[in-house]
TrEMBL record:
Family note: Belongs to the L6 tetraspanin family.
Keyword match Transmembrane helix: yes
Regions that span the bilayer: 12-30, 36-58, 70-96, 137-161
Statement: the UniProt record of this protein carries the keyword Transmembrane: yes
Annotated protein name in UniProt: Transmembrane 4 L6 family member 1
Major localization class: membrane
Topological type in the membrane: Multi-pass membrane protein
Keywords noted in UniProt: Membrane, Transmembrane, Transmembrane helix
Cell location: Membrane
Source species, domain of life: Eukaryota
Organism of derivation: Anser brachyrhynchus (Pink-footed goose)
Length: 183
């Protein structure tokens, strides 16, 4: 496949993924549509991994995917790769650490942090009842952090492919030859 076509395909795929990452990160601020106090929102959401990492950094890459300047495309792809990895890492940490929730005494804590993998809440749904407020916060976090993890990983892979594609395009040309004498 021509490097220019590959770049366009990757850009077309990355754009909706970046938008989904931004929306997913924003939804983490409003569990079940509730507006919470700032101190009641899970701390890992404040790293803006979906908005900044998988959203803006990757979206910047999308805007310039169609450029013929392959070295600029490589640089922006590296930024997108870093953004995708950033999103995947913080989403993983959010999944492992669990949500901030009220366990019934009116105080918001992280009841699942520092648990071993053997006792992790992800593998034991019976422990989910420990969180009383916000309602369904565990499922909310699991779904949204999982979406962000998947998006970050996919974007990182696509941006890595684009780095290789851009380097090949820089070394070998973009295969966008002008047709001389053909009508």
């Amino acid at each position: 496949m021509c490097t220019g076509k590959c770049s366009r395909c990757i850009g077309i795929i990355l754009f909706p993924l970046a938008l989904c990452a931004i929306v997913s990160n924003i939804l983490l601020y409003f569990p079940n549509g509730q507006v919470l106090q700032l101190s009641e929102i899970t701390d890992l959401v404040w790293f803006f991994h979906g908005i900044l990492g998988a959203g803006i950094l990757v979206r910047e890459k999308c805007c310039f995917c169609f450029l013929r300047f392959m070295l600029l495309s490589v640089f922006l792809s590296l930024l997108g790769l870093a953004g995708g990895v950033y999103c995947a890492v913080f989403s993983s940490m959010g999944l492992i650490g669990g949500p901030l929730c009220d366990t019934g005494d009116g105080e918001y804590i992280y009841p699942f942090r520092n648990n071993t993998l053997e006792y992790n809440y992800l593998f034991n749904q019976t422990t989910w009842s420990i969180c009383k407020e916000p309602e369904n916060i565990i499922l909310w976090n699991i779904v949204l952090f999982s979406i962000l993890l998947a998006i970050g990983a996919i974007e990182a892979v696509l941006c890595f492919i684009q780095v290789a594609n851009g380097l090949i395009g820089f070394i070998c040309g973009t295969c966008m030859r002008k047709k001389v004498g053909m009508q």
